[in-house]
Amino acid sequence: MNITPPLNSPLEVGLRVVFLLSSAFPLSFDLDALAQLDHALLHTGQNDGPASIHPELPGSIGELAIKRDLVKSGIDAMMRAGLVVAKPTNAGFAFQASENAPPFVSVLSSRYAESLRARADWVIDQLPRQDEASTEPQLRALVNHWISGARRQAMEAGDD
């Protein structure tokens, strides 16, 4: 029997993506950007934001190496549910919240959903507000800044 782990299942990752895309609407992001945003969503506490939604574990920086495939599976699940749409671009596809996503997200009221909403809003608020074409390099610079801060924290924690 093949058992899907409860954390980072396509459903959980897909829901996080829907929260991010709903917060960012009408912006769309490619798969790599969504993987970086999802990482930032889980590790807001390492980035001078609200406390991280999951406990911080050593090696969280390494998550980015496997995050892309997890996010792709989550996007596929949310596209089947009608909550995410793919938009063709010159570089491939970008993903955007569908018109069904904001009402869906708004009815979720658990503590976990409220935590996701607050952190998704915080992550998206960190992005510079300019035209969509300039978002990608700025997102990468912001994520690189966050990653270097997380590495610094990990090294400091290892010195104790």
What is the strand arrangement across the widest sheet? 1-2
What is the count of distinct domains?
1
Alpha-beta classification: mainly alpha
- Unreliable segments of 5+ consecutive residues: none
Please tally the helical runs, counting DSSP H or I stretches of 4 or more residues: 6
Mean pLDDT: 82
What form results from the Cα inertia axes? globular
Q: What does this entry show, briefly?
A:
This protein has 160 residues and is mainly α.
3D architecture notes:
By secondary structure, this protein is mostly helical. The protein has one domain. It is built from six helices and two strands; from the N terminus they run H-H-H-E-E-H-H-H. It has a two-stranded antiparallel ribbon with strand order 1-2. Strand 1 and strand 2 form a beta hairpin. It is globular and about 35 Å long. The relative contact order is 0.20. The mean pLDDT is 82.
Keywords, please?
mainly alpha; two-stranded antiparallel sheet; 160 residues; 8% strand; single chain
Give the SSE map:
Layout: H1 10-24, H2 31-42, H3 64-80, E1 84-89, E2 92-97, H4 101-107, H5 111-126, H6 135-158
Antiparallel strand pairs: 1-2
